[in-house]
Model the fold of this input.
Amino acid sequence: MDLEKSREQQAGEGCLVVALRMPVRIVALVLVVPLRMVWDVLVVVGRFLGDTVFRPVGRALVWVGRAVFVWPFVALWRWVLVPLGAALRWLGTVLVVVPAGWLYRWVLTPLGHALAWLGHRLLVVPSVWLYRWVLTPVGRALAWCGRGLLALASMLVAALATALYWTLRVLVVWPAHAVWRWVLAPVGRVLAVVAREVGEALGHAWRVAGHVSLAVGRALAAFFRWTVVEPARWAYRTVLTPVGHAVRDAVLRPLAEAARSVGRVTRDTLRSVRATVRQVRQDVRRALVGDHGTAGARGDRDGRGAVGSSDGQDDRIPLTKR
Done:
C-alpha cells in the first residue's frame, strides 16, 4: 500500500520535485545524523544533571530563599507592619477622619450650599441668557458658513482623490499586478516546492538519525556491559569474594581474637596495677600520718606501763599523743 501510494504521488508530482527529492534527502541525512546523536547525548547528560545536581540544588536554593527572604518578611508583616498599620489606622481615624467628617458636615456643607446658591444667581442665570440670545444665533450662522466651506472642500478633495487614484492605478497597481502574476508567483511556487522538499527531507533524516542514534547507543551499552560490567562482576564473584572470605577467616578473625585477648589482659593488668597503687598509697599515708585508733591504743599501753613503774607514787605522768 505504501509503495502504491508513493508511486501515485510520484506520478502526480512534477519532474522538478522528483529530481530534487533524493539529493536533498541524502544531504540532509548526512548532516542530521551527527546532530541527532549529539542531541541524544546532551539529553541524557541533561537528565542526569537535572536529577543529581540541578533539582537538589534548586530545592536547597528554594529553602534558603524562603529562610532568608520569605519567612523574615512574613514575620515582619505579621508582627510589625500589621499592628503598626492597625495603630496608624486608628490614629488616622481619630485624628483625621473624625475631624474631617465633622468639618465637612458642619462647616463645608453649609458653606458649599451658600456658594452654590451664589454661583447659580451670579453665573448660571447670566450664562443661560447669554447662550440663548447671543451664542445660539452666532453659532447657527457660523454652522451655515462651515457647511458651505465643508461642501466646497469635499468637492476639491474628491477631485484630487480621483486624480491620485487613477494615477496610482496606472503607474503602480497595473505594473505591480503584472510583475506579481508573471514573475513572483511562478518563482514563489518553485521556492515553495523546494522548501517543502527540504523540510520533508530534514524530517525524514531526523527520524532516521533517531533510529541510528538508538542503535549506536544500544551497541555502546552492550559493548560497555560485556567489556567492563560483566568482567568486573565475574572478577568480584569468582576472585574477590573467595579472596575476601579467605582473608577474613585466615587473617581478620585471628587478629580480632588476638586484639580482644590483648584487651582483656590489658584491662586485668590495669586493674591489678590500680589495686596495688591504692594499697601502696594507703600504706604510705598510714606510715606518714598514722591511724588514729592505733595511736590511742598504743598511748594507753604506754600510760599503764609508766604508772606501774612509779613504785606506788600517786603522781601520774600526763600522756601525750604522738
Summary: Helices lie at 2-12, 15-288, 292-308. The first helix runs from residue 2 to 12.
